[in-house]
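User: structure tokens for this one?
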Amino acid sequence: MFTKSRRFVKLFDSRKGNLDALLNKDFIHNGIVTIPCQITDYHDIISHYSVKKYETLNTEFADFLNTSAEVTPDDCPLVLNIIGDCLSEEEKLTIRETIAEYYAYNLGLVEKDEKRHKRVFWGMIIGLLLSGILLWFTKALADEPREIFFILFWFMGDTLCDYIFLTGHDLRQNRRLAGRLASIKVLFSNSFEKPEYSENDADKIYSEIEKM
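Assistant:
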């Protein structure tokens, strides 16, 4: 039994995913990502707690859309295909406007966070330079006072490296995803059909996004 378990562990460790092939097969055609979304009710998308004219998205729907979008390539525009024959024209208009406003708001939050981190980034650069200069000019001091400047220099350098290689990368990814979701094109259909986009269709979607 132990030998079999070890063989299975080795088998599971050796399995490889093929995300790109699956995405191209199910979501992407001619550089456009289409996310199909089956609904049975208006409130599958719009929160039950919303007040008319102040609608917001159902959190479960927003999570679904975020999760679906974040695994797709950064350079592909997003099209949301809402499938269901339960919506009036007024409800379709409300859904389009609410999705646009919701993700425009989220984009604003990401931009605000990015600006704050940029201020921290430049503050860390200035702090690193100043602490380096202080270390240089305090070479003659005893070890104990210089340790304060050394700790400051190390802290600034560590924070700066974290921003450049970790936090900065995550912020750029979040910024790009927020921008894609803020420019998402919303379509409605009564039944699911695998999306097919001609070159003209793709060019039209790109031009619509550029005008937003």
